[in-house]
Every structure is written in structure tokens, then in C-alpha cells.
Amino acid sequence: MSKIVSLCKRRGFIFPSSEIYGGFGSCYDFGPLGVEMKNNIKKIWWDEMIKNYENMIGMDAAILMNPQVWQASGHLTAGFVDELVECKSCHKRFRADEIKSKNCLDCGGGLTEPKKFNLMMKTFVGSVEDEAAVTYLRPETCQGIYVNFENVLNSMRMKIPLGIAQIGKAFRNEITPKDFIYRTREFEQMEMQWFCHPKEAAKWFDYWKTERLKWYLNSGIKKENIRIKEIEKSQLPHYAKRVIDIEYKFSFGWKEIEGVHNRGDWDLSNHSKYSGKDLRYYNEETKERYFPYIIETSGGVDRSFFAFLYDAYQEVEGGRTKTTESTKEREILLKLDKKIAPIKVAVLPLVRNKPELVKKAKEVYQLLKPHFMCQYDELGSIGRRYRRQDEIATIFCLTVDFESLEQDDLTIRNRDTMKQERVKTKELISILKEKLTNN
Ligand code: ATP
Q1: Per the domain annotation, does 129 fall within a domain?
Q2: Same domain flag for 288 and 371
Q3: Do 193 and 303 lie in a common domain?
Q4: Rounded to the nearest 5 degrees, what angle is found at the Cα of 275, between the Cα atoms of 274 and 276?
């Protein structure tokens, strides 16, 4: 874990938020490489959902919603609470289900009885800060989909079964945020809500469970590091009839990165009750009117980001690049899937004290830049520069050498095999496009 955290900071994936002021409450900022990688994860999820499945559309709801939404969803009443105990002397709080000791872990003081603590973040809307102006930063993105169910049905003229996909920020005032970006107070979710006939819910649950596991495997996660855990009936959240967690094997244990939930008709029936709008679906052919059941796939962008990093991180003993500096050191290789890697291509002049090489390399960089996420690097020995690129998962390194000047070609080095081949400059774009899209 500490190695990954340090790589993230050193190479511009993730920085502590407001770091110059000492950071802030377990919030993190995604740096130049982090934002590319995160966008890639969101893009492959979005493309998979919207393009690969029938009857699937997307939307993007507001973070702030009418507070009645949170009454109807149960967040203000039944469900969204953690039980906490508080230290009687230093007032530090701990999750009751996590603390094994009867005393404060910090100062040893006695603890109170467990008290309920709502995880929603409160805010005020408008110019007067009174109770009427209170609303919440959404603790989950899915409610924005449920309250728009009718709008989507009508505007898109769709029939059930249908899915609505969404990616967006959610906020939870977690008591014990920890494990880097695994548990934070501000995070992103990629959620899909599948509306189906109640009699078909069990079938669709199994279908989506398999599909979601497949997505992680197809995106490069190793089979031995991912598993499905069935949640026992007694542990189910208030809205759910069945839940499985997709878990990743982090160094701090098997942990949930996504949940698949059969939410029954909890959401639509409650929103009908609270809003007074009949959200039942009418099947014109069978003349049946009913509340669809919802199968939800709810993944964390940040948690899958973390799992992809964990899975890709390798240290190679003795060095791969065979430069004098590297042979004794361990080299870091980040073997991210090519769809997820932030930088696809690096352009490197063999040496930087030959202006002709630098000029040619810069021309190649300008040529490729509109097509691929590229980096240009001329600092240090070529071996060191390969290592720097391996460390951030760059798929191909292109080296401009003396032969390039005569032949108008360059070498392409493959990150994983380290094999190099010569390619004509004029064929570069099509060859790289092919290599980056084919499996
Ligand atoms: P946990 O039990 O770990 O708190 P949860 O069961 O409350 O998670 P869900 O409400 O099912 O999580 O949320 C769906 C997904 O959203 C999770 O699988 C996770 O990927 C992501 N998520 C939830 N809470 C956080 C958080 N505090 N930080 C980062 N991601 C989160």
C-alpha cells in the first residue's frame, strides 16, 4: 500500500487534497495522470453499458435534490446510519461495529453506549441558513435515476426491461475514512439501474452479477484477486432483497469494490408514496400496471481505480531495462490494461544533445498528440526514460535514433514484452491505432 501511495504522489496520479494546508479530512485530488486514468475507467464502463447492452440509456442528475427524496429513500429515517461510540475523555468517535476494545484506542478513556450517526452531509440552499433551507449532498447517485424514471420512459418511449446508467459524485460523512482512496468522504459512483418485471428480477440479478464480474476481468483484473460474496439475509440494507459484493483482494483484506442489489420495488413505491405521483409501469399489451423491480449495479470509480492500480503494480528484481543504473535496483512496472493506462505513447529522442534527433522526435510527438495521450521525454539516459514510462504504465515507447533520420522510421518498444520493432513514420498512426484497439 505505501508503495502505491508513494508512486501515486511521485508520478502525478493522486495528491492529498489541499496539501499545502496539511490536507483535508481524507480527501484526495487526482493529478494529471490520475485524471486520465480515471476518465479511461469511466469511459470503458460507460461504453460497455451504453453501447453493449440493449435498452440502456444514460443520464446525469444533479447532486443537490429536494430533501424529500431522502425521506422517501429512507436515508433520513431507517437506514443510513452508522452506530458510533464516543470516548468520554477525548471525544474521539469509533464505529461500534469496528471497535473491539471497550476503551478509546487513542487515550484509553471509557466509551459511551452506541449512538446513531447519519452519514449524509448537510448543506443549506438559498440565502437563509434555517431548517427550511437544509438539503444534503447526495450519498448515492441512484436516487437521481429513480425520480427521473417517468421522464426517461416518456421522453425515450422505452419499454421494460430497461437500464439507466449514470456516473457521478457522492458524499458520505464516513466516520473512519481510511486505506487511501478506498474509503473517502467524497467519491464517484458508476451505477446502473435495471428496471424489470418482478417475476424476472431473480434472472436479471444473476445476469448482471456475471456481467459485472466479467467487466473487471476484461479490464485486466486477475482472476485470483476478485471474487463474489453473497451477503447474508440478516445483513441486508433496508432497501434490498438480495445483495452480492464484488470484492478485490487488497493488501488490507478482501474488500467490496461494487455491489449488485435487488432493490425490489422499494424505491419506486416509496417515491410514489411521498411524491403523490403514480410511478407504476403500464404494459399496454398485457394491460398490467405494476412497480418494476430494480436490479442495481453500484461500483465505485475510486475503488476500482485503486483495485486496477493494485493489480497492475509489479516490482521486477534486478532490472528489466539492463542499463548500468538499473541492474541492481528493483524496477516498477505498472501493467495496466491498455484501455486504462493514462499515457499510451511516449516519444523519446535517443539522446538529447543531437538537435536533429530532438527535432525529429518533436515532430513525431506533434504528429501523434491529436490521436493518443502522448508524452515527450528527453531527460536522462534512454534506459532511465524507459523505466520512467514503465512505472506509469505507458504502453509504447517510440525512440528516434540515427537510423530514423535516414530511413524516416523509429522503434516501437512494447511495455510488456520489451520487444522493439522498426516502423515507418507515415504508418505510425494506423499501426498504433491497431495495436491499441486490438486485444
Ligand atoms: P461499505 O460497506 O464499504 O461502506 P457500501 O456497501 O456502503 O460500502 P454501497 O452503498 O453499496 O457501498 O455503494 C456502492 C459502491 O460505492 C461501493 O461498492 C463502493 O465502490 C462505492 N463507495 C461507497 N462508499 C464509498 C466511500 N466512502 N469511498 C469510496 N467509495 C465508496
Answers
A1: no
A2: no
A3: yes
A4: 100
Specify the residue with its C-alpha closest to ligand 1, atom 4. Answer: 183
Q: Which pLDDT tens digit goes with each residue over 372-385?
A: 999 999 999 999 99
Domain boundaries, position 42: 2-60+146-309
Q: Is the pLDDT of residue 262 over 70?
A: yes
Q: Is the dihedral of CA 243, 249, 253, 255 positive or negative?
A: negative
Q: What is the pLDDT of residue 412?
A: 97
* pLDDT exceeds cutoff 90 at 160: yes
188 with 276, same domain: the answer is yes
Q: Which pLDDT score, from 0 to 100, does residue 42 have?
A: 98
Residue 328 lies in a domain: no
On whether residue 86 sits in a domain, the answer given is yes
| Within a domain: 268 | yes
pLDDT at 321: 65
* Ligand 1 binding pocket mutation candidate from 118, 238, 256, 267 (most atoms within 8 A of CB): 256
Nearest CA to ligand 1 atom 1: 256
My answer on whether 263 and 342 are in the same domain is: no
- Specify the CATH number for the domain of residue 403: 3.40.50.800
Q: Which of 152-166, 193-207, 308-322 has the lowest mean pLDDT?
A: 308-322
Local structure of residue 156 (DSSP, 8 states) = H
Q: How many domains does the chain have?
A: 3
Ligand 1 pocket at CB < 6 A: 140, 172, 174, 183-184, 187, 189, 256-259, 298-300, 302-303
Buried b (16+ CB within 10 A) or exposed e, 61-83: beeebebebbebbbbbeeebebe
Contact (Cβ atoms closer than 8 angstroms) between residue 189 and residue 278: no
The Cα 40–Cα 126 span in angstroms is 36
The per-residue pLDDT of the chain, averaged, comes to: 92
Residue 80: pLDDT over 70: no
Predicted pLDDT at 78: 59
Give the CATH number for residue 160: 3.30.930.10
Same domain, yes or no: 287 and 366:
no
Q: Hey, which residues does 307 pair with through a beta bridge?
A: none
Is this model's pTM higher than 0.85 or not?
A: yes
